[in-house]
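quick one
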Amino acid sequence: MISPDLLLMGGSAAVSAFTLWRWRRLDGGTTPAVAEETAGVPVELGPAVSIVTDSAQLAVMWPALGLGSWETGFPTITAATLTEAGMLVEVQILGGQSLQHWANDATREVLAAYFAVPEVRVTSPHPGFVHLELRTVDTLAESVPVTSLLAYGVDLEAVPVGVTEDHDVWRLRVMYSHILIAGATNSGKGSVLWSIVNGLGPAIKAGLVDILLGDPKGGMEFGAGEDRLWTDFQWTATGIITMLTSAEAEMQERAARFKAAGIRKFTPSADEPLKVVIIDEYAALSAFATREQVTEGLRLIGLLLTQGRAVGYSVIVAIQDPSKDNMPNRQLFSTRIGLRFDESGQTSMVHGKEAADRGSRCHMISEATPGVAYVGQDGTKDFRRVRAFWVSDTDIDRIVDTYSPALPDLSPQADYSGFDPDDLGDEPTPVAA
Ligand SMILES: Nc1ncnc2c1ncn2[C@@H]1O[C@H](COP(=O)(O)OP(=O)(O)OP(=O)(O)O)[C@@H](O)[C@H]1O
Ligand SMILES: [Mg+2]
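structure w/ adenosine-5'-triphosphate:
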């Protein structure tokens, strides 16, 4: 029997269940019945709690899962804590085992089946230990409206775009970064894009960020910002290629100027704003563009991706099908957001071959939670599960109204108060007698 003192249960209901057990044992009483042990624990965690608190059951479970045996010894559960999402079980693993033994798909699935929970995630906080997260509650099940973060200022390297699974703000680096957003139809790509625009809003208004938007799906989704929020807005093949061509040329010109002036790091200003090139569903272009136009567009996007970051050009592309043919430069995006996919193969296309073992399960995201995604970032191995803000049509109108830069003042600047519209200037000026 593992010591109940090792169980650090959070949540008052759980604490009472385990305190009761400890009290009885300290009192010299008998081991309580399972029903008493699990009283107050959420019903869906009942089987798991009864297993982790019973060394006899654990001695059967570890060999059954191939994670321990009477010969090699058993892993040790050092703590179990009720969390908002379920239960966290901390385990000291056996010598010779690694995270890989525990985190692979097959082991996680049998652990989930054994504990009778929908999902078990495995991470390693320190060498020699693993955390088993038994998840029974989806903390991202409720959508979060975009308006809740309006008061935040803008850090272009940490733009608020949603919430994380741990109720943190999900922030995206837009400056010095490129972002790929991939997901099936209706998975929420539009809400990620609009959440980014909302987060950038005050900087757009201040003239520090220009958005160049290509919408090959016909201009419907982003048309609300035409001639107001976007510096350039194109939806035809020729228009999009022309926009990318001039963006690339201006980027080269800016790079040459920076080099000549010895500027190493881009800082946005009203004269030299951050240029954010957004393309929603580049692949849709192939429906009406020539093959040459599609290839040329990809070449230009490739140049912006490889050379734009340091000089203030960021690229954000949303795509439905993340295959190599559609987006050959996937690895050049430093942030890759995977929304819901239909197949696990698509998760790997966005997040790499071992994505599932490292915690990205885009293909398991429910259709009922659009906007939920796994985010991978260069320089970090793990994936974060997040949900973009929900941006309604009313929110879109508000974003456009609030953040569109002021239009140039074309009203007459001189004093025309004495102007007489009937005076066509053809009357001879009376000559003084
Ligand atoms: N973050 C979110 N929270 C709640 N609901 C959302 C969220 N994102 C999207 N939705 C809902 O899902 C629907 C589809 O979202 P969206 O248009 O953003 O998907 P999409 O991936 O851009 O689809 P498509 O591929 O057709 O362009 C929206 O109409 C909206 O009702
Ligand atoms: Mg869309």
